[in-house]
Write a structure and sequence with these properties.
By secondary structure, this protein is α/β, with parallel strands linked by helices. The protein is built from 14 helices and 17 strands. 34% of the residues lie in helices and 17% in strands.
Length: 397
């Protein structure tokens, strides 16, 4: 995919003394004035350091929180500058919008600066032409390195790419390459794990995947809706009974496409949802009226592991059970470890994404063993739905 549909830093040419506007994701969680998780900051390092080392004047564009077009000191990127400097191992200047043009003029080749929160502009999220112009006048080139914001057509993610020569940064490039291997041009057989609480939030994903994958593994509360659609009494389980018809239509579409849908046939049930309640493992036809399904059972988990052993590619979004509450993380952890082992031995390309998924893989201790783990939430989901991402489309060469 790289080099075919979008330009990367390999195509950018000589950047010595050039002002490069780099869209990054610095929207990190904060606690007591400190960065609680610097994963997103670390993801920016390859692009920013490469450009700085080549003598570019690196001007970082990013949003922070949801200030809704208003200046809010609690959402100023000035708060990020010191921790970001520590992650980069370089000095980082902070530039406010009031004197941005003058401040940029004082920067030297190799300098790195973070510009104030782009969402302080009311027109940023509307992709307003005036905001685009105000950003574009500061730079000579544009690099988008923020896949997590690529599903938004904002001034700093989409509009500016039409004003300046535009390139994908290293994190964006890695993400797009991984996604291409997962669903764009994957090695078959392909398996997809789709979990989560509600079918309604993943309808477009499921509809898209049945035409793309060979095995569709449905877990979480979503699986209960599909079991109910097949006439199984799921007791008190979380299920969207009004979507049984939709679930049936997805199952029919999968049949027509030659996609095998895997639903659990043994499950772990409890009468109350809390940590470590009394549980029992039963066949799905044996769920009592006062019980709820909270995880996939061991026999089904083992069968799913056998499915993965026949596959070359795996894309994963969402847990198989109520993984935040023990012991209902068992199936997710077990299958994640199987996928990690198959990846490690070279038989499986594994790509996972979404906040809950990343948390579940971290819990299983295998996030580092997957081929690629995307920290993007909405953008990853829209990609799984087959929707064009404006920030990516704007980079098309």
């Amino acid at each position: 995919m790289t080099g075919k549909t979008f330009k990367t830093l390999d195509d950018i040419g000589d950047v010595l003394g050039k002002r490069v506007l780099v869209r990054e994701d610095l929207n990190v969680p904060m606690a007591d004035g400190e960065v609680a998780d610097d994963t997103r900051l670390r993801a920016t390092v390859p692009t920013v350091i490469e450009l700085a080392d080549k003598g570019a004047i690196v001007l970082i564009l990013a949003h922070f929180g949801r200030p809704k077009g208003q200046r809010n000191p609690d959402m100023s990127l000035a708060l990020i500058t010191r921790p970001y400097s520590q992650v980069l191992g370089r000095p980082v200047r902070f530039i406010d919008w009031d004197d941005a043009e003058d401040a940029v003029e004082t920067l030297q080749p190799g300098d790195i600066a973070v510009l104030e929160n782009t969402r302080f502009f009311a027109g940023e999220e509307k992709n307003d032409g005036q905001v685009v112009d105000r950003l574009a006048v500061l730079g000579d080139l544009y690099v988008n390195d923020a896949f997590s914001a690529a599903h938004r057509a904002h001034a700093s993610t989409e509009g500016i790419a039409h004003k300046l020569p535009a390139f994908a940064g290293r994190a964006m490039e890695a993400e797009l390459d991984a996604l291409d291997k997962a669903l764009g041009n994957p090695e078959h057989p392909v398996a997809a794990v789709v979990g989560g609480a509600k079918v309604s939030t993943k309808l477009d994903v499921l509809r898209h995947l049945v035409d793309k994958v060979d095995h569709l593994i449905i877990g979480g509360g979503m699986a209960n809706t599909f079991l109910a659609a097949r006439g199984i009494d799921v007791g008190k389980s979380l299920a969207e009974h009004d979507l049984k018809g939709t679930a049936e239509a997805i199952l029919d579409a999968a049949d027509a496409a030659g996609c095998t849908v895997h639903l659990p046939y043994d499950v772990v049930v409890a009468k109350e949802f809390r940590p470590n309640p009394p549980t029992r493992t039963v066949n799905v036809h044996e769920v009592a009226a006062d019980e709820m399904i909270l995880d996939i059972g061991p026999a089904a988990t083992e069968a799913l592991a056998d499915v993965l052993k026949t596959c070359r590619t795996l894309v994963w979004n969402g847990p198989l059970g109520a993984f935040e509450t023990p012991p209902f993380d068992t199936a997710t952890v077990a299958l994640a470890r199987t996928a990690a082992a198959l990846t490690h031995e070279g038989s499986l390309i594994s790509v996972a994404g979404g906040g809950d998924t990343v948390a579940a893989l971290n819990q299983a201790g295998v996030a580092g063993d997957f081929t690629f783990v995307s920290t993007a939430g909405g953008a990853f989901l829209e990609w799984m739905e087959g929707k064009p991402l404006p920030g990516v489309a704007a980079l098309a060469a």
